[in-house]
Design brief:
Blueprint lengths: L1 H12 L3 E5 L5 E2 L2 E2 L3 H11 L3 E5 L6 H10 L9 E3 H12 L4 E5 L2 H9 L3 E2 L6 E4 L7 H12 L3 E4 L5 E2 L6 E2 L1 H12 L4 E2 L5 H11 L6 E5 L2 H10 L3 E5 L6 H4 L8 E3 L8
Parallel strand pairs: 1-4, 1-13, 4-5, 6-7, 6-8, 8-9, 9-12, 13-14, 14-15
Antiparallel strand pairs: 2-3, 10-11
Length: 265
């Protein structure tokens, strides 16, 4: 056992850059998880590059920075990487200056606009589905017809439901499924668990997979995508996963910790 712990310690000693999920890792129900503020301050004080990742495509990085500040976490907007930003970066790589019909809110609309995309309902290159609390039958119908006419189907993330105080809400993955059923076409999903989101995050901070760790609370997104991207994976037990949940999967993270407080020096 001591040899195993020594191997983990040695592996973590080589980590110079950090990617971390937000909900369930740094915050829970808009309250900072103990140790999160201190860890972010430690990274900032020691000059360790980091990014906070989220599949949420509703909000801009500035919005999320303000939300985290209200929770007591000082995370500048340039240290936040959303599925909306990753999607915009991917589409800019695919077709610079392209056009898109978008179902979504400020996060994805702003990201695509800043990437040089034109929003249109007339023969767009892409139909992009992001998260929103205001899905309309008219917009979904339009998306289906545009995809059938040849527009490429892109989605920010696969999450079928999202949390709310009253219970689960239908999220992006549920709308993806509806459109897929109507068109027979699957979307290309950029957000977690696609390791592309992690690779684009690495590019943003000039990091390399061999010396970067991913901290998450979900086996089915954070850990599997981090593993496939070649990162050192750390699962914390402050979010959705518990020991019983971990046992359901055939793979394991490099480390399982109680919380981010266990990463403090």
């Amino acid at each position: 056992m001591s040899e195993f712990l020594e191997e983990i310690s040695t592996a973590r000693a080589h980590i110079e850059c950090w990617l971390t999920d937000m909900d369930g890792v740094l915050v829970r129900e808009d309250r900072a998880i103990p140790g999160a503020a201190e860890l972010i301050a430690h990274w900032a004080d020691t000059g360790q590059p980091y990014l906070v990742l989220t599949n949420n495509s509703i909000f801009t990085a500035r919005d999320l920075s303000a939300r985290l500040a209200a929770s007591g976490l000082n995370v500048p907007e340039e240290r936040i990487w959303t599925s909306a930003l990753a999607t915009a970066a991917f589409l800019h790589q695919q077709k610079p200056g392209g056009s898109a019909f978008v179902i979504g809110e400020a996060g994805i609309l702003t990201a695509l606009h800043d990437a040089g995309f034109v929003m249109t309902e007339t023969d767009p290159d892409f139909v992009v589905v992001g998260e929103t609390r205001n899905y309309s039958f008219e917009a979904i119908t339009k998306a289906i017809r545009l995809i059938n006419a040849g527009s490429r189907f892109i989605s920010t993330n696969p999450d079928a439901t999202g949390p709310s105080p009253e219970g689960p809400l239908p999220a992006t993955g549920a709308i993806n499924a509806l459109i897929t059923k109507a068109t027979g076409k699957q979307p290309y999903i950029v957000g977690k668990p696609n390791p592309m989101m992690f690779r684009s995050a690495l590019n943003k901070i000039g990091a390399h997979s061999h010396n970067t760790a991913m901290i998450g609370d979900r086996m089915d997104t954070d850990v599997v995508a981090g593993m496939e991207a070649g990162l050192h994976t750390i699962l914390v037990l402050t979010g959705i996963s518990d020991p019983a949940e971990i046992e359901k999967f055939p793979f394991r993270p490099d480390e399982i910790l109680g919380s981010v407080a266990d990463l403090l020096p």
